[in-house]
Amino acid sequence: MIPKELLKKIRLLELKTRRLVDEAVAGQYHSAFRGQGMDFDEVREYQPGDDVRSIDWNVTARMNHPFVKKFREERELTVMLVVDLSGSGLFGSVDQSKRELAAEIACVLAFSAIRNQDRVGLLLFTDQVEKFIPPRKGRRHVLRVIRDILYHEPRGTGTSLSGALEFVGRVLPHRAVVIVLSDFLGETSPTRAEVAGHLRRRAVHNETLGRISVSTLRQVSRRHDTVAVEIADPCELELPDVGRLFLQDAETGELVEINTSDPRRRRAFAERQQKTRRELDRLFRQAGIDAIRLRTDQPYHHSLAQFFETREMRRRHG
Fold this sequence. Notes:
Elements: H1 4-32, E1 37-45, H2 57-63, E2 67-74, E3 78-84, H3 98-115, E4 119-125, E5 129-136, H4 139-151, H5 161-171, E6 177-182, H6 199-203, H7 214-223, E7 225-232, E8 244-248, E9 255-259, H8 263-287, E10 290-295, H9 301-317
Parallel strand pairs: 3-4, 3-6, 6-7, 7-10
Antiparallel strand pairs: 1-2, 4-5, 8-9
Helix pairs in contact: 1-3, 1-4, 1-9, 3-4, 5-7, 7-8
């Protein structure tokens, strides 16, 4: 039985995101993602400017003047939401945790998908595959997807993105849109704290990127249209000046003391974070994956719109 408080939260989230989908996102989503192929639509008479390669020679021979085949893009897609439920997702220094923002973004994408008659599936993962919901259509199905993102109690606390993507490769026989929502923190980083100390995990993140298999990412992106949605908290990007703290890692239980009032430490931390983000960008480029960065302290509407527009422009000129 789902608690009433969670049901209320799901309904409010549905109202909020459906309004955004109806007003802005659905059309951009439609333009940003291709169908799986081309379906035959009709035969019509040749007109000046038509591609001669599209001439239907059988019909042309019967009618004694040229006809061309017309095709339309097959619009139905399969969208697989791959959501990271590791311990770091519970962190949030503002009103919304990273896990809550991931659920909201997933809600926007899911409702955009069913608006276009696409199928939506869900894979939840930590250091293991937590739950898999096969792709289906419909509002009730999408509400189940959102419920599980918010309500599922993960068995694991760590992170294994490679394992999740290998599972995706096994369960999706045909080309799909695979959207990974994660903070992309490394799989075995030593110190992710529940408040500001969680920040140190970002500091060592650059040491763990290599544990995310580039070959696995590349293998998935070759078979599926893969998008990485990185979700970060502002306190993970710049160390706040809040004095000396004792903090506990959300995944390992490790305790650490950190002096956040040291300006050199804060400066070094910020520099490491910039290096980490550049390394993550390089990783995605090597794997041929599109990426979008979102923050818990900033509205996501503009970033989503810009991402969709960029994909549409590349599609038109590709």
